[in-house]
Amino acid sequence: MIKPATINSCSLMAFPVRYGLRSNLLCKLVLATVMLVMTTILPPAYAGELKATFIHKLSDFSGAKPFNAALLKSDPVRNEVYAINGDSVSVFNASGMEVYRIESDSSIGSIIDVVVRSDQKLVLLANKNSRVQLLLCNYRGERLGEIPLKGLPVEYGD
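^ that's the sequence the OP posted. Answer follows.
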């Protein structure tokens, strides 16, 4: 007569005692090994397929703009792309045509980054005279005010 095996405290694995898995530590080790093997053998599960395609070059009325390592930001509401290149931010429409350019000037300093808020205002991260500042602007880069920064290290603050 075959006697059913009893299960120890490692019930997730349901390993019978006859295999010598009496210790919790050993059960966890076996479980970790099985998980590692499963994650390396099985293909990853994706929520959906992501496909990138080339649509067009970013251009102005003179032709394609020669960007080298520009930082791109998207505004999905206005369907615009913001390209931060050097000390300016170029704004492109859905066709890839430059429709506006925000130039840095002495009041702003060097533009480092830009964020489009949900209310369609821009926040520019700028560096003026070695002082980092956040500037609140309208959707075309006209300054509306400054967002105070608190708790920064001395070398970044006033």
